[in-house]
Every structure is written in C-alpha cells, then in structure tokens.
C-alpha cells in the first residue's frame, strides 16, 4: 500500500520541529484513521528513525491504530467510581449489539456523574441502558 498523497504534507508541516513524531502520528491518525505500514515507513524515513522506533510508539499508545477500525469505538469507563454507578452492567448491553467496539478506559474525569463514556472526542455521563443505546445508534 502506498502512503496517501498528503502524508507528505503532514510530515513536512512538523518535520523541522523538536519532537515531531507525536504530532505527525496524531495528524496521520486523524487524517487517515490509522497509521499503516506505508505511513510508518515514510515517517521513519523523514525523521531519520528506524521503522522499529516508529512502530514502537504506534503500538505503545492504544489510540494509535495500525489498521482502520471495522466498527466505531465506544470507550466505556471501567474504573471504580463508574463501576460503583453500574458501568459493568452496561458492558454486555453495548457488546451484545455488535455494532460498536467497546473499549475500556480507566477514568474520564466524570467520576461523580458516571457511568461515563467517550465517543471520538466527546464524553458522555450519567449513562444508562437507554442513553447507551442512543449513543450506539449515533455512533454507527
Ligand atoms: S471513574 Fe469513571 S469517570 Fe472517573
């Protein structure tokens, strides 16, 4: 697979700055939905890094993806405060639909109004089964 045409633009936008790898990875992820092998190779070449170094960073942060997602993701908080407010009961509801990928996160800073979830960059609080169903409906 060849890198997308404007991958070069993203790299050029950040290449001269210190610590360019992370902003490039964020922009590539946002533009293309993943950081595939061709993009990792091009980034490594541009920043004079090994492919292993770039791969190591991409694989370390689970929000970076090496392939596009097959389904939208809902990040459901599984930390203690949300557990105490019933988050665990929502997990099978979300997973049973099979229309979204349910990913655990551990605190979204909404502990007092949990259960909480994140879709994209938006956060949602006071989830119950009905709100979760409408969240899933909006995400797909
Ligand atoms: S514990 Fe869920 S938002 Fe903090």
List the helices and strands and how they pair.
Elements: H1 7-14, H2 21-32, H3 37-47, H4 51-60, E1 73-77, H5 80-84, H6 87-97, E2 101-105, E3 117-119, E4 122-124, H7 129-139
Parallel strand pairs: 1-2
Antiparallel strand pairs: 1-3, 3-4
Description:
A hairpin with a 2-residue loop joins β3 and β4 (122-124). The chain has 2 domains: 7-60, no CATH class; 73-139, Glutaredoxin (3-Layer(aba) Sandwich), CATH 3.40.30.10. The model has no long low-confidence stretch (mean pLDDT 91). It has 140 residues and is of the alpha+beta class. It has a 4-stranded mixed beta sheet, covered by helices on one side. It has helices spanning 7-14, 21-32, 37-47, 51-60, 80-84, 87-97, 129-139; strands at 73-77, 101-105, 117-119, 122-124. The structure holds FE2/S2 (inorganic) cluster (FES). FE2/S2 (inorganic) cluster (FES) binds at residues 77, 79, 81-82, 107-111, 114, 116.
CATH topology of the largest domain: Glutaredoxin
Ends distance:
27 Å
Note the total helix count: 7
DSSP summary, beta strand count: 4
| Structural class computed from helices and strand pairing | alpha+beta
Bound molecules: FE2/S2 (inorganic) cluster
Beta fraction: 5-15%
The second-level CATH architecture of the largest domain is 3-Layer(aba) Sandwich
Tell me the radius of gyration.
18 Å
Report the order of strands and helices: HHHHEHHEEEH
List the uncertain runs.
Answer: none
Overall shape: it is: elongated
In helices, the fraction of residues equals 40-55%
Structural domain tally: 2
- At the first level of CATH, the class of the largest domain is Alpha Beta
Largest sheet: 4 strands, mixed
Overall pLDDT metric: 91
How are strands sequenced across the largest beta sheet?
A: 2-1-3-4
CATH superfamily of the largest domain: Glutaredoxin
